[in-house]
Amino acid sequence: MSNINNLTSKITKDAEDKKVIILSEAEDKKKNILAKKQEEASSEEKIIIEKAEREAVSRQERIISSAQLQARNEKLTSKQVIISEVFETSVEELCNISNDDFKAFVKSTILNIDISGDEKLILNAEGIKIVDETFVCEINKELGSKGKLTLSKEIANFKGGFILEKDGIEINNTFEALVNSLRDELSLEVARVLFS
């Protein structure tokens, strides 16, 4: 019976030793799996953080770029408004010239353009107060044989200057049209003077 006890003890001891080995191997596997998973999680975390940082930088750059573009557009719009005001002020200043200067402008313009001489002179309400039939006769005398210019009864709606009309075709010498015709040519110069 002692052999049986010895055999049982040996089997129990071997089982205990095997249990310790199996538990130790299982613990090692657990540690390896956990270490591997922590390493993977750390690597994944690093990738996610790097991606988030890149996206944040990209988003920040887009926001800054958009803000700069918006600021540039607002600045450009403001400059265009100011330039428009300069040209509008120019029209207003031209409308405020003296009666003699207005007559001189009408006369010299008509004498210096190629016309048939039998056009109608169209004025606004202010121009009608300054230019009369006598003045038109003076211009006709200077035009010579083709001087058949007439003063229109029509009162036009423009700020200043005049229009010559014949057979539905108009030669627009209003201050608005004259300033507008120079606007493209002078806008850069006006901008340089104003904003330099």
From TrEMBL:
HAMAP family: ATP_synth_E_arch
SUPFAM superfamilies: V-type ATPase subunit E-like (SSF160527)
Keyword Transport: yes
Recorded family membership: Belongs to the V-ATPase E subunit family.
Domain of life the protein comes from: Bacteria
Gene from which the chain derives: atpE
Protein known as: V-type proton ATPase subunit E
GO molecular function, one term: proton-transporting ATP synthase activity, rotational mechanism
Signal peptide: none
Job of this protein: Produces ATP from ADP in the presence of a proton gradient across the membrane.
